[in-house]
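Fold this complex.
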Amino acid sequence: MKILVTVKEVATVEDEFEIEGTEIADQYLGADLNEWDDYAVEEAVQLQEAGIADEVVTVTIGPEDCEQTIRQALAKGADRAVRVWDDALEDVDLLDVEAKTEILRGVVEEEDPDLVLSGVQSGDDSWGATGVSLAEELGFEWAAVVNHLEHDLDDGIASVRRELEGGVEELTDVELPAVLTIQTGINEPRYASLRGIRQAQRKPLDVQTLADVGVDETVVDSDLELTDMYEPESESDVTVWEGSAEETAGELADLLEEKGVAP
Amino acid sequence: MSDVLAVADHRRGDLRDVSYEIITAGRELADETGGDLHLAVISGTVDEFAEKLDREGVDAIHTVDYGEEFNHGVYAQTVTQLYDDLAPQYVLTPNSVNGLDYAPAVANELGLPLVTDTVGLETDGDTLTATREMYGGKVETTTELEGQAVVTIRGAEWPAADGTGDATIEAFDVDVDEDALGTTVNGFEEVGGGDVDIGEADVLVSVGRGIEEEENLEIIEELADALDATVSASRPIVDNGWLPKNRQVGQSGKVVTPDVYVAIGISGAVQHVAGMKGSDTIVAINTDPNAPIMDIADYAITDDLFDVVPALTERFQ
Ligand SMILES: Cc1cc2nc3c(=O)[nH]c(=O)nc-3n(C[C@H](O)[C@H](O)[C@H](O)COP(=O)(O)OP(=O)(O)OC[C@H]3O[C@@H](n4cnc5c(N)ncnc54)[C@H](O)[C@@H]3O)c2cc1C
Ligand SMILES: Nc1ncnc2c1ncn2[C@@H]1O[C@H](COP(=O)(O)O)[C@@H](O)[C@H]1O
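Structure:
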């Protein structure tokens, strides 16, 4: 069985930052492998170690800069990576779910996996939608917010648990081929070993253009337009205690005593 | 094309709060587009649900008596068929775990733009302006689009609709293609039980990713001991296996309302806040003065937890 994992490099923001137009100024941004995708990669690698998957391929839509991040997945055990990028994607400030769906479809059709694992959401723009949209596009089955997957995958069925609200889990059988959107906590993602990191440098990372994956450049023409970004107005009237840690801890201790909390 | 179609959410016999909130969101949009607000209630005891959902502002309720519980295939098929019938301008669904299990499929199938997890919506009839968060709530954005769209709304952002309506309630004759239903829901399980019920505690000392390492939890436990308080946590601490699931506060954990909630190294993501915003007094200890937790905290210390927590413990020993 072949597993494809969609992975994204997400932007992280420092505590103090400035906004320029509809973006956070570059100098305040960092990059990381999307937390949810890290769990998806781990799940795929575990299925490979269990002898159920023969091959684990990661796919990302992202510029050359993100290769270092994507190689983290290779260092953890994925076999090879596909990265889609194109000049047409260069100046796009909002790659919407529809565009990601179409581009990823091109890759999935080429790779023909039995199972696609994606993350529940991107940590930066949090659409929480790409996996399910992609499944519909492909005519695959799907399940969103999966926090347990039975590893036998017998009879072309994935038995999963979907994590609903309020500590309730739904037990669901999903016909393969399918897209599962993976929730954090489903496993314990490993740290890449030094050996893994060295090997990752030699694993194939195949770069493809939109034309290569059979998608027209007009895919970037979004119906959505990002028109503003701002720091949310704080509605709070929070009292911030100032001073040394001893002083602020003292203020809090006084409050706790006042509330009758402290013994 | 000026109507609004909203979809209710229910589970195990109960309508979820967002079902009433989506009426408010939908009504506001329909007032601007000049159309009707249609509500779909799919599966379960739909007649009983419809009666409850007939609140002020709802024009029509379409019930689909098919199956007991949520199945994304049934929902997706029903909503697309209702869309073909009604041609609404906006399709609204909750941004719940189940909402995210069908709304993206509906949008893709209908070829409509999708905007998820909105916290504010405005329209002038043509242009929809959606407010969303990015970067875990550090910034807000507005996104505009023309024409029709599928939109998911975040829970607890709109007030619940009240009053009694006079909606027409009609069974919608959906043609469910059973061969296309590729998932089967076999049941539910409650998780997170055990000896400790953080929902009962008067004082919670709650720890988040700012604690960095498992062995550092010791300073949190020492504080809790000194205060005779209970330790709870944000999700990453539980995901890492450092504390059991029954300690998790939030959307997928427990809802708590203690007298005092001390959030230590917790950013205040919406899914966490959903579980603790009802606390009487909220204290945040966080190095980031812009962390979203500051918006709901009553008191805050913007300093390193590794300095503040031991100093606090010492005061009580
Ligand atoms: C479907 C779904 C369900 C979810 N359910 C839940 C849920 O039930 N409960 C939940 O909690 N989350 C839930 N989440 C996850 C949620 O989105 C956040 O990822 C999570 O709450 C973040 O936890 P955190 O605040 O501990 O970590 P972070 O967001 O990483 O925040 C860490 C904070 O610690 C501060 N910090 C760092 N170092 C220090 C220091 N030395 N001293 C003081 N402060 C420091 C940082 O400034 C930061 O604000 C869910 C997510 C999804 C998608
Ligand atoms: N640019 C991208 N490249 C590859 N996968 C992506 C990309 N964006 C999103 N995904 C996948 O879709 C999931 C959900 O993302 P989103 O719908 O953007 O919140 C992520 O966890 C990824 O697995």
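The pocket of flavin-adenine dinucleotide (ligand 1) is lined by residues A 120-121, 145; B 97, 136, 208-210, 234-236, 248-253, 265-267, 269, 271-272, 275, 285-288, 291, 304-306 (CB under 6 Å).
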